[in-house]
């Protein structure tokens, strides 16, 4: 039985050997079995060019090994030391405004600078040679959260090479970018640049290609390190920690094929029940990227960011958050970081060992969680059940992450989260899928604001609809082609026929807009013409009075406004029920995740409410070791059951 990983980023270079000794004792007490070491330790490992100091890391790895703790060894390439910046000023990143940044924070490098690539590969090789066969080594953690952007001349050169490979000649590029607009026609490759700061709105196709290019370039940098480490330590899995945010130029679908294990860092941006919904969202997405297998590499032990404030997680919440990830397939729960730093930029970021020390409520919960986690290991091999998929695509996000759209409120992430939230509220297990994938296994597919749709994706979605599965498409889907150019003839171009509608105009709304079924939309509406479909609900009042707002054509539904939550939930419920998928029926805030392996079904129940709930679920309680035919879950509590489904 594989263990579930428990632990986090461990930064002994910030502490004295006396503290290391205490760390070992506390890690043992907490049941930590994996420590991520060295993420930002380049200047401690190589304080001067070519002069290495490995003693401390030798000692730390041996100490961890001696204490039965395995090591996730990082290459420190996300933060080159100050000497590197001064020796290679051309490897410092340049902003879109032309400002060259200096060291003093982290991620101050240009991924296209030859000096950086060489140095990064060099330190990775040095670490691989020294520690590739260390008995504590469980995994390589290449770099940290790839995502840096630069606009310098190195980048311009690499971008042109990438474009030449993609388009072959300038005529094709000029067509794809529609450079005839605003006299941007290029007559020599030297005229093409990254989207540096310009006078007014940038070219959206250029901006999109730049993010695609950066994703590929960063991936090349990852692959270089990965290949060297693979050669030096065959069989040791190699990963990097994914992060998501609008700023990240990484297409995680493509990257997922290149790592041995998908790993994500996850920090919800809200402290309320939204944090639970976002936790589920990130975990479901990671499971999709990892094709079922993945690892939560970082989460906060305590602090939840909430609009400028950091809220301590209330007792039990760290446990529930961790279980929510594990329930959705993470092979463990890791944190940033083991011990909260006493200085540095993130001195107030929580740690498994808080500033208050081990004699604290927070550490007690860390210890308790460390006791329960191993009891769930048998569920790790079970498949998470999901009959519904939501389509996710970074390119649609990138294509809508810029100016010049019909509303500044257009927000791809919010649209996908909203769709996922309805399913979470209904207690319906959900996967994510790439728009070009085979969707036939799903009973329901939701396509939220999938603005950019390649011909291949359009075909895949059409094929799914033809197969009879319920499909819900929401506004702003199918609008643009792979070059981010608009599909003409009426929106949603790629899906018009399958939806049996034609949208003639977008009508963004300042506030709310009413529908004749009592629902309220906000921010957005459209002039929808029926072309085979029937109206499920119509707009009420205003210019669109009496015109369709929600439509249905056989198994294909269309939602033309940003429905507020209770109404959106009812619509999603109608769609899933049409497919024969049953909502869990649990009280709001009580989630259940089911997983199946052979004839065993696992049920993870998390009670995020302040009320005790009694549920008709039976089976063996994996943690408490008792069998029952119904369970009560305390306020803020949880239970994991195994039941035979034969
Ligand atoms: C990221 C990084 C960590 C740390 C945390 C803090 O995930 O990888 O180094 O900065 O965020 O939120």
The whole-angstrom Rg is: 26 Å
Count of helices?
17
What topology, given as strand order, has the largest sheet?
14-13-15-16-23-22-21-18-19-24
Shape: globular
Q: CATH homologous superfamily of the largest domain - what is it?
A: Glycosidases
Number of E-state strands: 31
- The CATH class of the largest domain: Alpha Beta
The assigned CATH architecture of the largest domain is Alpha-Beta Barrel
Class from secondary-structure proportions:
alpha/beta
Number of domains: 3
The CA-CA distance between the termini, in Å, is: 23 Å
CATH topology name of the largest domain, in short, is TIM Barrel
Verbal overview:
The protein has 646 residues and is an alpha/beta fold. The chain has 3 domains: 5-149 and 237-379, Alpha-Beta Barrel (TIM Barrel); 388-578, Class I glutamine amidotransferase (GATase) domain (Rossmann fold, 3-Layer(aba) Sandwich), CATH 3.40.50; 590-644, Golgi alpha-mannosidase II (Immunoglobulin-like). Helix content is 31%, strand content 21%. It has a 10-stranded mixed beta sheet with strand order 14-13-15-16-23-22-21-18-19-24. The chain has a 9-stranded parallel beta sheet with strand order 5-4-3-2-1-11-8-7-6. β18 (512-515) and β19 (520-522) form a beta hairpin. α5 (114-131) runs parallel beside α8 (204-232). 49% of the residues are buried. Bound molecules: alpha-D-galactopyranose. The site of alpha-D-galactopyranose has 9 residues, from loops.
Secondary-structure blueprint:
Elements: E1 5-10, H1 17-30, E2 34-37, H2 42-45, H3 55-66, E3 70-74, H4 82-87, H5 114-131, E4 137-141, H6 153-167, H7 170-176, H8 204-232, E5 238-239, E6 241-242, H9 252-256, E7 262-265, H10 273-289, E8 294-298, E9 304-306, E10 309-311, H11 317-327, E11 330-335, H12 361-372, E12 383-384, E13 388-391, H13 394-399, H14 412-426, E14 430-433, E15 444-447, H15 455-466, E16 470-474, H16 496-499, E17 501-506, E18 512-515, E19 520-522, E20 526-530, E21 534-540, E22 548-553, E23 556-559, E24 562-563, H17 565-578, E25 590-597, E26 600-607, E27 613-615, E28 619-621, E29 627-628, E30 631-633, E31 638-644
Parallel strand pairs: 1-2, 1-11, 2-3, 3-4, 4-5, 6-7, 7-8, 8-11, 13-14, 13-15, 15-16, 16-23
Antiparallel strand pairs: 9-10, 12-25, 17-20, 18-19, 18-21, 19-24, 21-22, 22-23, 25-26, 26-31, 27-30, 28-29, 28-31
Helix pairs in contact: 5-8, 6-8, 10-14, 14-17
The structure holds alpha-D-galactopyranose.
Residues 144-145, 243, 265, 267, 298, 336, 346, 349 line the site of alpha-D-galactopyranose.
């Amino acid at each position: 039985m594989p263990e579930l990983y428990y632990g986090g980023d461990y930064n002994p270079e910030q502490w004295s050997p006396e503290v290391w000794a205490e760390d070992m004792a506390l890690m043992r007490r907490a049941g930590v079995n994996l420590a991520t070491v060295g993420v930002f330790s380049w200047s401690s490992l190589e304080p001067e060019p070519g002069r290495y100091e490995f003693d401390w890391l030798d000692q730390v790895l041996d100490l961890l090994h001696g204490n039965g703790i395995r090591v996730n060894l990082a290459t420190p390439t996300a933060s080159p030391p100050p000497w590197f910046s001064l020796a290679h000023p051309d490897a410092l990143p340049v902003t879109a405004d032309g400002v060259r940044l200096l060291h003093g924070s982290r991620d101050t490098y240009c991924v296209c600078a030859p000096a950086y690539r060489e140095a990064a590969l060099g330190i990775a090789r040095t670490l691989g040679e020294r520690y590739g066969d260390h008995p504590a080594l469980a995994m390589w953690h290449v770099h940290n959260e790839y995502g840096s952007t630069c606009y310098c001349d190195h980048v311009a050169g690499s971008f042109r090479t990438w474009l030449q490979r993609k388009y072959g000649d300038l005529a094709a590029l000029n067509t794809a970018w529609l450079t005839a607009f605003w006299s941007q026609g290029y007559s020599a490759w030297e005229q093409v640049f990254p989207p540096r700061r310009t006078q007014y709105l940038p070219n959206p196709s250029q901006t999109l290609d730049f993010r695609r290019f950066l994703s590929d370039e960063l991936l090349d940098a990852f692959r270089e390190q990965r290949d060297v480490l693979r050669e030096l330590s065959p069989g040791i899995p190699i990963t990097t920690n994914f992060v998501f945010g609008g700023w990240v130029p990484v297409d995680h679908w493509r990257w997922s094929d290149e790592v041995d294990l998908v790993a994500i860092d996850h920090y919800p941006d809200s402290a309320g029940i939204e944090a639970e919904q976002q936790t589920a969202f990130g975990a479901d997405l990671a499971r999709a990227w990892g094709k079922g297998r993945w690892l939560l590499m970082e989460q906060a032990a305590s602090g939840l960011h909430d609009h400028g404030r950091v809220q301590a997680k209330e007792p039990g919440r760290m446990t529930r958050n961790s279980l929510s990830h594990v329930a959705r397939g993470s092979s463990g729960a890791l944190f940033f970081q083991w011990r909260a730093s006493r200085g540095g930029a993130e001195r107030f970021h929580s740690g498994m060992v808080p500033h208050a020390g081990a004699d604290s409520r927070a550490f007690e919960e860390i210890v308790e969680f460390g006791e329960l986690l191993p009891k769930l290991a048998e569920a790790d091999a079970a498949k998470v059940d999901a009959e519904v998929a939501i389509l996710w695509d970074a390119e649609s996000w990138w294509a809508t992450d810029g100016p010049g759209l019909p509303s500044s409120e257009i927000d791809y992430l919010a649209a996908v989260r909203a769709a996922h939230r309805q399913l979470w509220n209904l207690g319906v297990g959900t996967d994510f899928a790439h728009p070009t994938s085979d969707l036939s296994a799903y009973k329901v597919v939701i396509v939220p604001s999938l603005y950019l749709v390649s011909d291949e994706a359009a075909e895949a979605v059409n094929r799914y609809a033809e197969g009879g599965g319920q499909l819900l498409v929401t506004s702003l889907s199918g609008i643009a082609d792979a070059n981010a150019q608009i599909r003409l003839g009426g929106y949603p171009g790629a899906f018009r026929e399958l939806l049996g509608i034609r949208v003639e105009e977008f009508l963004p709304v300042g506030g709310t807009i009413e529908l004749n079924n009592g629902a309220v939309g906000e921010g957005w509406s459209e002039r929808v013409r029926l072309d085979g479909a029937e109206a499920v609900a119509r707009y009420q009042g205003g210019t669109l009075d009496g015109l369709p707002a929600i439509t249905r054509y056989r198994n294909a539904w269309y939602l033309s406004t940003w429905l507020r939550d209770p109404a959106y939930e009812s619509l999603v419920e109608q769609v899933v029920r049409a497919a024969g998928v049953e909502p869990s029926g649990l009280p709001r805030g009580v989630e259940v995740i089911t997983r199946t392996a052979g004839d065993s079904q696992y049920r993870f129940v998390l009670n995020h409410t302040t009320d005790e709930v009694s549920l008709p679920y039976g089976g063996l309680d994996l943690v408490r070791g008792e069998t029952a035919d119904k369970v009560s879950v305390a306020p803020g509590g949880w239970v994991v059951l195994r039941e035979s489904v034969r």
